[in-house]
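In practice, a research group might receive sequence data for several interacting partners and want a quick structural hypothesis before committing to experiments. The following worked case mirrors that situation: the sequences arrive first, and a predicted assembly follows.
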Amino acid sequence: MALVIKLSGRIFDDEELVLRYASVINKLPGKIGVVAGGGELARRYIAVARRGGASNTFQDLLGIYASRLNALLLISLLRDAYPRVPATLEEFLAAWGGHKVVVAGGFQPGQSTATVAALVAEAVGSPVLLNAANIDAVYSDDPRRNPNARRIPEMRYDEFEKILHSSALPGGYELMDVWSLSILRRNCITTYVFDGRRPDHIEAIARGENPGSRITC
Ligand SMILES: Nc1ncnc2c1ncn2[C@@H]1O[C@H](COP(=O)(O)OP(=O)(O)O)[C@@H](O)[C@H]1O
Ligand SMILES: O=c1ccn([C@@H]2O[C@H](COP(=O)(O)OP(=O)(O)O)[C@@H](O)[C@H]2O)c(=O)[nH]1
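A structural hypothesis for the assembly, expressed as tokens:
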């Protein structure tokens, strides 16, 4: 069975955490698709570009290249990974046949790596998407803005869509963007959102546990 994991870019801002994820992924059975986010590296370049009046397209492209650098770092730590960062879904699929792990970053402006992860999960036929996020679960509202936000361990995509107010601005797209949800929903792919600081949660989910939030169609 194929498995697809989206790694929040914030994971790549923490050296120890990147090494722990590489160790967990190296031990996972079966074929693994990974998508790396842009993290602090992306936000730093996007902030300078925005300040200098660069277009949203170029701000997104900077985020894409930052996410691809994060992806290449992870590839360098993995045993049997395709040794390049695929820039398109077609390239990802061409690599998928010949390697245990393929690691991508962004694909095109106007979306986030959550959409890349959803496209990859659909393309490789993965029944689940694991989202190692910069938050421990999905809440009724953004817990960083609303201290009364309620943690929601189980929900359906229609409820998830109502909760998310992700801005489609470069470096924004918090948690998951709307395009990712439409792709996940049309394939009935189950998404697990969990604390990205806990690579051990990948094995917990593989054992059938739900350490964060589970979203189903
Ligand atoms: N309903 C929500 N539940 C959980 N987190 C949310 C929600 N709405 C917005 N967020 C925000 O989404 C962020 C997690 O998104 P993620 O893409 O993993 O990290 P980031 O975009 O911060 O790199 C958290 O920082 C959190 O503040
Ligand atoms: O296919 C993609 C993936 C990413 N991005 C850009 O790269 C940034 C970093 O990606 P993301 O926000 O998904 O990373 P994370 O939130 O995990 O750090 C995004 O905000 C977008 O600006 C993009 O334009 N297209």
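Before designing any experiment, note the following. The helical segments are 15-27, 39-51, 56-77, 89-96, 113-124, 157-163, 178-186, 200-206. The radius of gyration is 16 Å.
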